[in-house]
Amino acid sequence: MSRFLLRLNLRRCVASQIRMASDQLGELGKGAGKGGGGGGSVREAGGAFGKKQVAEEEWYFRQKEKEQMEALRKHHAEEIEHHKKEIERLQKEIDRHKGKIRKLKHDD
Description:
- The protein is mainly α.
- It is 83% helix and 0% strand.
- The chain has three helices and no strands.
- The chain is rod-shaped and about 90 Å long.
- Homodimer; represents the active form and is present at a pH value below 6.5. Homotetramer; represents the inactive form and is present at a pH value above 7.0.
């Protein structure tokens, strides 16, 4: 699971760097040769549709990032709960062993 999350974080980091680098070229969705670069026929055409496509793509990536963050939070919450249960189980084992030691001391 951690390998999967690491891979997602790496992809997100690379994607955000690409988007940041493309922002430096000019406004996305302006069309080819106008600072927007290529990216498909809609983007190359420029205009309102190109800008709309850029906005939709940005929204999509933000939504994906939110979903990934929520999954990561859920995973950590589950891990915490698992460890708490494990601590309780081990504490019961410790108490059981202490009881056996007390019993052995009384038998002497």
